[in-house]
Design brief:
elongated; Rossmann fold; 11 helices; alpha/beta; six-stranded mixed beta sheet; 2 domains; Udp-n-acetylmuramoylalanyl-d-glutamate--2,6- Diaminopimelate Ligase, Chain: A, domain 1; five-stranded mixed beta sheet
Amino acid sequence: MSVTVGQFYEAAKSKVDLEWVTGEGGLSRTIIEPAINRPGLALAGYTRHFAFRRLQVLGMAEMDYLLRMASDRRRASLRELFSRRIPCLVISRNRKVFPEILALSDEFQVPVMKTPMVTGAFINAATIIMENLMAPRMTLQGTMVDILGIGVVMEGKPRIGKSEVALALVERGYSLVSDDVTVLRRTDDRTLVGSSMPITRYHLELRGLGIIHVPSLFGVASVREEKELDLIVTLLRIEEFADMESGLTPKTRELLGVRIPHLVIPVAPGREMANIIEVATLNEKLKRLGHDAAKELDEKLMSVMAKGKVNT
């Protein structure tokens, strides 16, 4: 997955104090690799293994190296860099931009930006931003809440009550992550992170009431921008649940190559779904601490049955 320079700038400008210098016409240029490159060897003339697909950063060492060059050699060195179709160039420490860089940016339509950050700190922050932007993603029809540090997505058919359950959980002090549609991204082989669509962030839709802005009613602690996904809960009407297997057998669901614990819970008039999902989440947290009630009960039953067979 590639990222445009414009997407990187929007994601990074407030986090690393990124500022445009020139080359706004190159916003659509693509960054293909998430790693960040310092083109010191390329500036010195060795371009055989030059990582031109990456965002390029000129730090204090590179800028001092260019400053000590004769102007014609500096122009030739920078031309070689820009001609390699680099996506963009970032100058750290707010160093003064050479006129040759401005001219080549206009010629090759390569965006140039700068940041006051120290080069190493910028590279670390930019790498995280790029990895997040390039992470595999998918959308899931469901509402996500954070219950005691456990990220729970509730899914089910329309009008089954996902948003109403989320509201009841928020009233109990838990946090809303997303309503109706959850965006999932894989950060590593074992972790999915859920967030909301930007346009619906912090909002909840309730039938008969409309749209509410959750932090305005319940405070800033009632929402989260993102949360790791730890549990998927599928809500089914009681008549659809009748023919399903017992919930004693642990189930998982695979999303983006990551297996997530999965529960199917029946919905019926009079059932307090917020209580049930809260208990299901607490039970999942206990499992993570090594205490599995269903497994322990099964082991006790097997032990009793074994003793009964011995006695007979």
